[in-house]
Structures are given as C-alpha cells and as structure tokens.
Design a protein that fits this description.
- The protein has two domains: 97 residues, RNA polymerase sigma factor, region 2, helix turn helix motif (Rna Polymerase Sigma Factor, Chain: A), CATH 1.10.1740.10; 153 residues, Orthogonal Bundle (Arc Repressor Mutant, subunit A).
- Helix content is 68%, strand content 0%.
- The chain has 14 helices and no strands.
Length: 263
C-alpha cells in the first residue's frame, strides 16, 4: 500500500513538472538566454536542469512550490555561465583615449546599408548583454526573474532565499543602474542619444574585431512602431530584454524525453 502511494505521488509530481515546462518554457528560455548570452548554452542548461529535477523528484520535500524548486535549479545551473564587466567598453575606450563618450561616438560617423541590418540587430543584442554584465549578479538575477519570468516579489524572494523587502531594494537598484546606462547613451530609448548600434560596425571593422553573430533576436521593426515609442523608459528596457527561443517547446520536450528514456 505504501509503495502504491509512493508511486502515485511520483506520477503526480512528474505530471506537475511537465505542467511547469508547458507553462513556463518560453519565459525560462528568455531568462536563461539573458544570463548566458548563448542559445546553445540555454538549451543545454534547461535540459540539464530538468534532468536534475526528474532525477531528484523524490528529494522534493514540498516545503515550497514545485515551480519555485525548479526555478532555483535553473538559476543555479545558469549562474555558472554568467560573465561580468567592471565597466562598459565605451567607457573604457573613452578613458583610454582621454576623450568624452560623445566625442568617441562623433568619431564613428557611419551610414549602414541594407545588407547590414542583421549585423545591427546582432550588435544591439551584444550591447544589451553588455549592460547586464555591468550590474552585480544578484541584481541581474532579480531583474531577470521579474522581467523575463514575470514573478511577483514574494516569489522572487522564495527563489533567491531573501526577504521581500530585499527583493524590492535589489530590483530598484538593478533597474536604476540599467536606466542610467540606457538613458545616458542609448538611441533605442531616445533617438537623440549618441550611441547608435550601427556606429559599432565601423569601430569593429576599423579594429579588426569579429562582428557578433548567433543572437537571432529580430526586433528592429517593432522598435520603430508607435507602441514602443510611447512606452515608459523602464517598459522599453523590459521589452528589449524579452527574448525568443531558438528551439520550440515541443522540440525541447521531445529531446528531453529521449534523454530521459536513455537514462
């Protein structure tokens, strides 16, 4: 009888795991992608995380919601891949040259042609990742749990093992840091600002640097629409950090099931 109850409980929990994947896959993918900056790493991390969940489901103690437990595992897997910068490249370049950022951008006058639109999309993504790299990891995780996973402050507190008040402070500070970086320079937020994605094509070509590729987050047309232009600054930032998955939920689940069958 006890064995039957245990078996039924495991079946229930496995079904609950699949419900979390079905409900949150797109959001989890976007959050992990913003932490790792790589579609391949994102796919690998989500697969490894859910394999850990399936293998250790008998250790789940029901002290929190199943989804909270899963989010913690995903976060722990992702944090190993997070990179950090002490300052933005443009700040370092301007300091090295002894000029202002505005003077640096003015030196990059460049008119892209149509063939470079995809490169501009890739450069925008590189820049978005760069901004995130410049805020502490704890702030980054808090911001992405709110922005990509759309969790409530209480849920974030449970995932991060901190108080709700700490979440509020950390979230405020992360948004403040991002807001300052965007507000001071980004033309996506304010067309009058000096940093335009296509300027970096010239800089990277002039310095024989490889142009970024592989991000595949096409947003250019949406950023020109009136809806985006009318958003508040923080809403614009939130929108920019939403990401599209490179593998569909169905494909991911099918691959995961094949791996589970092998184990």
């Amino acid at each position: 009888m006890e064995s039957t109850c245990s078996s039924e409980s495991q079946i229930f929990e496995v079904n609950a795991i699949e419900q979390v994947i079905n409900r949150d896959y797109k959001k989890l993918y976007g959050m992990v992608y913003r932490m790792t900056e790589s579609h391949q790493d994102t796919e690998d991390i989500l697969q490894n995380a859910f394999l850990k969940v399936y293998k250790n489901i008998d250790k789940f103690m029901n002290k929190s919601r199943l989804s909270t437990w899963i989010y913690k595992i995903v976060i722990n897997e992702s944090c190993r891949h997070m990179k950090s910068w002490k300052k933005l490249p443009v700040v370092a370049i301007a300091e090295d040259r002894g000029i202002t950022e505005e003077a640096f951008f003015n030196s990059l006058e460049f008119v892209p042609d149509f063939s470079e639109n995809l490169v501009i999309e890739e450069l925008r993504e590189k820049c978005l990742h760069g901004f995130l790299r410049c805020i502490p990891k704890k702030m980054r995780v808090c911001f992405l749990l709110k922005t990509c996973l759309e969790l409530k402050n209480k849920e974030i507190a449970e995932v991060m093992n901190i108080t709700t008040d700490n979440v509020k402070v950390t979230l405020y500070r992360s948004r403040k840091r991002l807001k300052e970086m965007f507000e001071d320079r980004c033309s996506l937020i304010d067309p009058s600002k000096p940093c335009k994605c296509y300027f970096w094509i010239k800089y990277m070509k002039d310095n024989n640097l490889p142009l970024p590729e592989g991000h595949r987050q096409i947003k250019a047309d949406a950023l020109k629409e009136e809806h985006f232009r009318n958003l508040s600054l923080l809403k614009k930032i939130d929108y920019l950090y939403h990401a599209e998955e490179s593998i569909s939920k169905i494909e991911f689940i099918n691959k995961l099931k094949k791996v589970i069958e092998i184990l």
